[in-house]
């Protein structure tokens, strides 16, 4: 009691002093070291959201963390993925960082930025955030199916266990975001973004991005059974988008993130350059698929004009290879399930090029001492060296100044992609335009973009993509297209789309599950039955463990809502 009495006496004395002093203020002074949202820069938020989008796509420089693009390239044989079965291809914890970047970073930053931008009349900032949110959430559905959205970081309510929304409802919300973004781009704003990392505040180019994302959305859902989607809706919407003439149809409007050349404080280089050339690579598990390199080297009478820009060969001669570096070179016969026309173990040099050293699909052998043999990512799009037949050993940290020093790009939506999507739509939905013309435009747009990107390194080597080589290559593809039936035509469209999509596994993974093409991919390396294909990915381990409303999948083979193809459609 005596202690309580003393405390009360002190409180009364303090109150008396405060009441007797007119100059005393009871206002709480905010700590200068603890910024609140009202003190934050809308431009800083926007730049962070844009960077997060690039990292969700391509991974993070200086970290052993993959983005969605890498997870998409591996199942479709663009990049090698370990196995030996699809179930063992990934572990749920592999997706923790992507989920963290989406829910704990990008979406929170968008939710925090929007009211500040609204109050300031910065409608272009809001529109860009809406476009990127739509892209991110569509990609989350594409990879994981039903995921949290409406309750995730909603208005700062702090819902600890947000429920999952159906993939169809998230797609509908994404489409609405894109429509609203287009409207916001038409409003008078107080100021444009100070440092837009994509388009420098050009509203016309952002409008084309939003419309092209809607094209992607309605092509993606052409097989869906959900309300508001399906073939007739897709046909109508795609024709409207074509007629609007507001799509990414020229390379000047390409939607990509430009990486830098700093290797520390911070490391701003393309994450794949970092993995291939600095420190962790190529002693890491970064291998290009033999199928994909063979597709470019040997499918037609001459190699694809982009091949020297895509890949850098450290060796031309395999004679130094032995069982230690690649045990399959000593195997006497092919496995019974292997098509002898497809590359096994090594890419054949039947078309004038040799030295392409990758791995076959789901090969889960350990990492051998093959640093000096391994084919690395080249100039496009990661900023590495151009393959000029010098065959230098450029692996490891001594090669950090090779090529464009990592100043690559994350190709998110390029003009060539638009033409390939329109080609598929014209062939399968009979939308406006000619599929063959779209196919040719897509190939030429892609080759032009790649050649221009690497011109500073390729010019004068004698190995640059020439007009004659490009014209001959395109003509040969179109001859094959003209001779094919509809299934063959779709295969050729998708094969060429896959080549244009190098280092964009998001669209390749989606296109393969949607079309079943290419239908001649090489099989699993170590077993004729690798189990059901990855029709979606595991939920993040952290999300499944911490959110009572997320139940981990029994297997990563559940189709997403727009994938209504039958079991066994892809493998």
TrEMBL record:
Region span, Disordered: 549-571
InterPro entries in UniProt: SusD-like, SusD-like_2, TPR-like_helical_dom_sf
Keyword DNA damage: no
Keyword entries, A-Z: Signal
Region forming the signal peptide: 1-20
One Pfam family in the UniProt entry: SusD-like_2
Coiled-coil ranges from the UniProt annotation: none
UniProt-recorded name of the protein: SusD/RagB family nutrient-binding outer membrane lipoprotein
Source species: Flagellimonas marinaquae
């Amino acid at each position: 009691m005596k202690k309580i009495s003393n405390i009360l006496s002190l409180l009364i004395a303090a109150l008396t002093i405060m009441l007797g002093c007119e100059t005393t203020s009871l206002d709480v002074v905010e700590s200068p070291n603890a910024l609140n949202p009202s003190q934050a820069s809308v431009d800083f938020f926007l730049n962070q959201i844009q960077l997060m989008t690039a990292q969700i796509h391509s991974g993070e420089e200086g970290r052993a963390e993959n983005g969605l693009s890498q997870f998409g390239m591996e199942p479709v044989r663009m990049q090698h993925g370990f196995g030996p079965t699809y179930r063992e291809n990934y572990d749920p914890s592999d997706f923790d960082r992507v989920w963290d970047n989406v829910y704990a970073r990008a979406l929170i930053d968008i939710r925090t930025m929007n009211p500040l931008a609204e109050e300031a009349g910065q409608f272009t900032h809001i529109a860009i955030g809406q476009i990127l949110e739509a892209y991110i959430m569509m990609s989350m559905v594409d990879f994981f199916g039903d995921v949290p959205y409406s309750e995730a970081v909603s208005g700062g309510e702090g819902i600890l266990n947000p429920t999952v929304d159906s993939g169809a409802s998230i797609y509908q919300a994404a489409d609405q975001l894109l429509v609203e973004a287009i409207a916001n781009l038409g409003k008078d704003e107080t100021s444009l973004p100070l440092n837009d990392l994509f388009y420098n505040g050009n509203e016309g180019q952002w409008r084309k991005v939003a419309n092209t994302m809607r094209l992607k959305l309605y092509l993606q859902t052409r097989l869906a059974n959900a309300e508001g989607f399906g073939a007739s809706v897709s046909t109508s919407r795609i024709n409207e988008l074509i007629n609007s003439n507001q799509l990414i149809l020229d390379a000047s409007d390409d939607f990509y993130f430009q990486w830098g050349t700093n290797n520390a404080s911070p490391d701003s280089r393309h994450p794949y350059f970092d993995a291939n050339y600095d420190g962790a690579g190529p002693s890491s598990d970064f291998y290009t698929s033999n199928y994909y390199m063979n597709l470019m080297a040997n499918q037609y009478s001459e190699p694809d004009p982009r091949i020297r820009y895509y890949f850098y060969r450290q060796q031309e001669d395999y004679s130094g290879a032995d069982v230690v570096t690649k045990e399959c070179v000593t195997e006497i016969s092919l496995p019974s399930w292997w098509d002898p026309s497809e590359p096994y173990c090594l890419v054949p040099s039947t078309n004038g090029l040799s030295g392409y050293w990758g791995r076959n699909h789901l090969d889960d052998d350990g990492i051998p001492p093959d640093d000096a043999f391994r084919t690395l990512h080249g100039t496009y799009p990661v900023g590495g060296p151009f393959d000029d037949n010098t065959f230098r050993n450029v692996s490891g940290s001594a090669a950090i100044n090779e090529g464009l020093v990592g100043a690559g790009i994350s190709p998110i939506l390029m003009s060539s992609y638009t033409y390939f999507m329109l080609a598929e739509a014209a062939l399968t939905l009979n939308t406006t335009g000619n599929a063959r013309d779209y196919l040719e435009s897509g190939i030429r747009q892609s080759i032009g973009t790649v050649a221009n990107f690497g011109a500073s390194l390729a010019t004068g080597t004698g190995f640059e993509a020439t007009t004659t080589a490009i014209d001959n290559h395109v003509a040969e593809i179109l001859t094959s297209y003209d001779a094919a039936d509809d299934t063959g035509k779709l295969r050729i469209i998708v094969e060429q789309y896959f080549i244009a999509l190098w280092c964009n596994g998001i669209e390749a993974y989606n296109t393969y599950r949607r079309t079943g093409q290419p239908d001649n991919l090489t099989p699993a390396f170590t077993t004729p039955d690798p189990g059901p294909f990855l029709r979606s990915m595991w939920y993040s381990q952290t999300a499944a463990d911490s959110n009572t409303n997320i139940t981990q999948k029994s297997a990563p083979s559940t189709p997403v809502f727009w994938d209504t193809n039958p079991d066994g459609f892809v493998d």
